[in-house]
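**Polypeptide and fold**
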Amino acid sequence: MNNPPVQRCAWAQSPLSIEYHDREWGTPVYDDRVLFEFLILEGTQAGLNWETILKKRANYRTAFRNFDPRQVAAFTEETICSLLENPGIIRNRRKINSAIQNARAFLEIQAEYGSFDRWLWNFVDGVPIQNRWNALSQIPAETDLSKRISQQLRQRGFSFVGPTIIYAYMQAVGLVNDHTVDCFRYSQLGGVP
């Protein structure tokens, strides 16, 4: 007897996106290094396909010192020039400069709140929002909450953190459970079918 196929969100099609979907997307993240990684990757993804970013993720980890915000905040013009010659990442000066600027702002939030995690999860009172979508077409590109977080990040000096980027970030790090109700991950992450 054959087992029925695993039901997942419709966007998870390639081996890389399936692995990301099954292991990471929507799983609550409380580790500041990982939160910083996703913040940089989501900003870098602007205007590009997420699959492109997933393919380059290992290169980003190397180039951006395993997303240690202290090291990224200390990048110099020489480092930037080196990154602009690195074919393993998206060679966009504005996005590279943004990552450095965001690392500095990230460190300021850590200093003020003890961790970025504490600051970020406060927006949802520490509990992921459980949405109930039947189809990808129902999932919004941004929400009032993503607009609020985006505005606060921009006021703190972050860039490439518009409401759409921040909503994708919220989905990635599990502030919201946007797996569709028929996806096996929906209930694993607290959704009630």
User: Anything to note?
Assistant: Residues 25-188 form a domain with the Endonuclease III; domain 1 fold (CATH 1.10.340.30). The chain is about 55% helix and 0% strand. The radius of gyration is 17 Å.
